[in-house]
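Let us practice reading a record.
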Amino acid sequence: MSDLPDDPDERERALRDALHGIFGERTDEVLGQMRSQGLDPAALMGGVAPDPATMQHLMDQLQRLFTSGEGPVNTQVAHDLARQVAVAEGDPSLTGAQGRSAQEALSVAELWLDAATDLPPSGGPARAWSRSEWVEATLPAWQQLVAPVAASAADALATVLGDQVGDGDMSGLDLPGMPVFPGGSLGDLDPATMMRSLGSAVYGMQVGQAAGTLSREVFGATDVGVPLLSEPATVLVPTNVRAFADGLDSPFDEVQLYMAVREAAHARLFVHVPWLRAHLHALVEQYARGITIDLDALEAQVRDIDMADPESLRGALSGDVFGLHNTAEQQATLLRLETALALVEGWVSEVAATASLPHLPHSVPLREMIRRRRAAGGPAEQTFKSLVGLELRPRRSRDAAALFAHLLATGGPEARDAVWDHPDLLPGTEDLDDPPGYAARRAAQADEQADVDAALAQIFSESTESEEPGDASPGEEPGTDEGAPGDGR
């Protein structure tokens, strides 16, 4: 077995010749598919000519794109691509000093927050993560958020391509780049299974791209506004905090402390308001399930799919084929979700400001920088918009912060934090428009509910009294007495 040549062009030709004996005319397409998933065939071969075991490994990598995963999102594809994207701009391992610094900042943040809110600490560990560690911990949550619309999209894709193929096999489907494997083609698979696998793979690529990009932007585990961890914890991503601080006038230690306060405040809220996590996820799921797929637009895009081009695959199931906001229910759900996200961000912003102002000289400009950053969004948020048709952006976070500031000024921390006592107390758009009227509206709502409860209690009481048995003798129907009509006397 001879070594491959050192010259890149010669190496490429040698590799292509070796693969041609297995893949034939589709060699270029297969190589393109491998590279689209971040796999370098030459690197996988370790610099020597391919042997059968190595070639089988290469083919397994490619086939996994289409045949692995049972759910609407191909988790393996999502995981692999997210890890690749996360390290694309560098992801150095954290030093011991970086880890200790981040954990100390989170501990200090908890002390400051104790003086600003009655919500106790989350109770979880304080952690410092690399970008790759953030991906590993949060990817399951992103897959859960995307799953409802991914399932609908996979069904739509199966319908569109199934109409093209009919009831036969996939061999007649004109999709450039359809990979062929020794002993058969993926086209030999059941059409519905193949199309759902393809949809699952596409969404796996979308989720992986978005999660990997987010890992280069986030400062912790909570600053995207939805809970992403299954267990309580506070987290900082020091590499991203450092990159953000480098463009500011504030020293790194101060920036890190401010981010730690925000992270710890988020964690307290998500842990000690038990209904909030389910409320946010339910709104995302409700919105996603209401999305309709424009089958005509999808069919038009599918005609031009190049299976060797990841952008072509991702574009085929982009937000352009979603029938967005097409019902009153969709609009109402979106408004409730945006309001809930704004309330989370507004409360965290207000509590973090209260906690950090006595200690951090640059807390005010840092708060404004974060507000602008959240309002503008980023490329990953745009990707999730194409995934589920919505942006996880707190559009009215300033209004929400003003509401919490008003409650703090008029009723203290107890009144501000009491908003989270029950879902019925959650402010709505009217409260964001008119913060001073929040208390009066909730008082009127409580009075109305009390009247309803009293009326129901009266009805049930009367019903119970009418059904109580009388002092009937044995064998005599309860409630009948002498001389009653129909007793035969």
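A brief commentary: The CA atoms of residues 342 and 394 lie 4 Å apart.
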